[in-house]
Amino acid sequence: METDLARQLQQLEQEEEKQYNLLEQALDDDTILQ
User: Fold this and answer.
1) In a 10 Å sphere around its CB, with 0-12 CB exposed, 13-18 middle and 19+ buried, how is residue 10 labelled?
2) Tens-digit pLDDT profile for residues 1-34
3) Within 13 Å of residue 18, how many CA atoms lie on the same side as its CB?
4) What gap in Å lies between CA 20 and CA 13, rounded to an integer?
5) Can you tell which superkingdom this protein's organism belongs to (predicted)?
6) Of 3, 11, 16, 27, which sits most exposed with the smallest number of CB within 10 A?
7) What's the sign of the alpha-carbon dihedral 5, 7, 8, 10?
8) What is the model's pTM?
9) Do 32 and 26 touch, CB atoms closer than 8 A?
10) What is the DSSP string of 11-32?
11) What DSSP designation does 33 have?
12) Beta carbons within 8 Å of 33's beta carbon, 6+ residues apart
């Protein structure tokens, strides 16, 4: 049970990191600002 929760949390963190990286890339490309 606990390991399932830990795994889910890890997946969520990875997804969050992916989204954050995409956002940072977009900002670097100035796509949001223009």
Assistant:
1) exposed
2) 789 999 999 999 999 999 999 999 988 887 655 5
3) 6
4) 10
5) Eukaryota
6) 3
7) positive
8) 0.62
9) yes
10) HHHHHHHHHHHHHHHHHHTTTT
11) T
12) 27
The C-alpha angle with vertex 21 and arms to 15 and 22, in degrees rounded to 5, equals 90
The one-letter code for the residue type at 13 is E
Structure tokens at 23: 């956002």
Indicate the residue type of 15: E
Query: Cβ distance 27 to 21 under 8 Å?
Result: no
Residue in the block written with tokens 């989204």: 19
What are the tokens at 2? 């606990």
Q: Return the structure tokens found at 3.
A: 């390991």
